[in-house]
Design brief:
10 strands, six-stranded mixed beta sheet, 47% helix, binds coenzyme A
Length: 258
Amino acid sequence: MAYDNLLYSIEDGIAVITINRPDKLNALNRATLADIESAIEDAQANPGVSGILLTGSGEKAFAAGADISEFADFTPEQGMELSATGHDIFNEIENSEKPVIAAVNGFALGGGCELAMACHMRIASANARFGQPEVNLGLIPGYAGTQRLVQLVGKGKAIELLLTGDAIKADEAHRLGLVNHVVETVADLKPKAMEILKKIAGKGPIAVANCIALVNDFYDMEENGFENEVETFGALFQTPEFKEGTQAFLEKRAPKFR
Ligand code: COA
């Protein structure tokens, strides 16, 4: 399927989604958000896909935020609708049964930082910059940045970043736990993300999906992740992949899950 605002390909069983508005620093207008949602859903539905890599085109930006030109004259109702739409799409990413890695190749500001935070892991090139500069516009993050930033870096640092609007470099983001790995150049990003995604592709997909869901339960006040873990742990004993995984261990061979 072709998209107007992103490139989409499947490489070695990994869906590679590249936001493709480099002249606008990959700013997330509504059409781009809709394309991202559609590509994520396509990757979810494709049994030949085991993981998803999300990145931006060019060397300058992952995404420099929501498209400011699109909401400059919004009413409160339109603002709320925009935010709710973003929440829905980013929740879909967070709840994806297949792992989603953001390969952050430059600015990840505002909605771009929020998009990266909705992914399960973040890998940054050394030139990446993370920040929530919305206060400079008299705004706040609208795609769950006030919540996911706290989850990832803790309250004190999250408040500092939200109130100052300061952007931080990749190495500081790494130190804070906002990114999992830093690589030297933009060219190093994809190989690193693919390496991790391919490693996960060799594991039991039902187990992988359940790990993601249970980690998300920790942050969901309506879920009891501890109880859910007990139930899920038990339920997995009847899956073919559990039988294959344990059998393979006992037979001293590598498991074949897919
Ligand atoms: N929304 C819409 N357009 C954006 C954008 C955004 N969030 N971020 C960048 N762009 C556009 C610029 O308007 C410019 O378009 P033009 O060439 O048609 O004028 C183009 O992308 C290049 O950006 P520019 O500002 O010239 O690049 P720079 O290297 O001088 O600065 C940034 C880079 C990221 C510091 C700067 O673009 C910026 O501050 N962007 C907004 C970040 C932000 O506030 N994000 C949160 C939004 S809620």
